[in-house]
Amino acid sequence: MTVPKVDLIDGAAMPQLGFGVFQVGDDEAERAVATALEHGYRSIDTASAYRNEEGVGRALRASGLPRDELFVTTKLWNSEQGHDNALRACEASLSRLGLDRIDLYLIHWPMPGRGLYLETWRALEKLKSDGRVRSIGVSNFTVDTLRHLLEETDVVPVVNQIELHPYFQQDGLRAFHRDHGIHTEAWAPLGQGHGLLDDPALARIAEAHGRTPAQVVLRWHLDIGNIVIPKSVTPSRIAENIDVFGFQLTPDDLRTIGEMDKGIRVGPDPAVFESD
Ligand code: NAD
């Protein structure tokens, strides 16, 4: 299975579908990433907060795949914000991953109340110019925090990784991204499995295509231009979630899913979320 790539605004290319490892322990992440790589995933999304960068790194090395075929994202945690903290955090992630370069480094949450994301971003700009990371981006930024970042700093984030699924479609933020050349990357693309995948409308579309609701949801993300990073530790689901390139949704299917937005988040509201 070869996953198409999207061209990022800084000239790099990123697989449109990757593999997430949130809430997966270090050894389990190693096994899950190994399985994902066998099934053709080449982009892995971890974070220092997930405490599994070492397991991810072990799986990457054991795969024997050339480094330039792999795309590794990790994220700087809230307690690592601030200029010098961010520089140290990146070195620590590189060392846990066993890499000499991260493909995409993200600020995990903006925490606007702390007022540190601009100086943190300037540290990421330095990491990029020093070659420690290839591309830099953000996660959980709102229109307000993104606009502020664009006004005050030099490098445009290549992605904003945000909660996005059919029950929480984020049309306003997606339009803002489009206007600024930022790619939308969807976390919880399957709504973390709760409820969404039992939706009767999705079941009907899935049945019509001989596919599963998860595959229909992932196909919808790809069709509307999102980058997706579904997570599973179950080998059959890992295989199922990348097998989404052999069918097409109809305009009616896309309209039906487009009308499913309930404005329901599964995660915290980034305008107010703060945590160490
Ligand atoms: P997800 O939407 O990928 O859902 C994962 C869950 O859905 C699994 O645990 C499983 O219960 C279920 N599932 C997966 N495949 C399935 C299938 N084929 N059929 C039925 N059920 C299935 O949620 P997520 O893990 O929260 O998000 C994906 C990735 O996004 C994470 O692993 C992580 O890398 C990233 N993420 C980032 C942030 C952030 O703040 N930036 C927050 C959460 C997650």
UniProtKB/TrEMBL annotation:
PROSITE patterns: ALDOKETO_REDUCTASE_1, ALDOKETO_REDUCTASE_2, ALDOKETO_REDUCTASE_3. The active site is at residue 50. Substrate binds at residue 108. The record marks 75 as: Lowers pKa of active site Tyr. Residues 17-260 form the NADP-dependent oxidoreductase domain. PANTHER family: 2,5-DIKETO-D-GLUCONIC ACID REDUCTASE, NADP-DEPENDENT OXIDOREDUCTASE DOMAIN-CONTAINING PROTEIN. Belongs to the aldo/keto reductase family. This is Aldo/keto reductase.
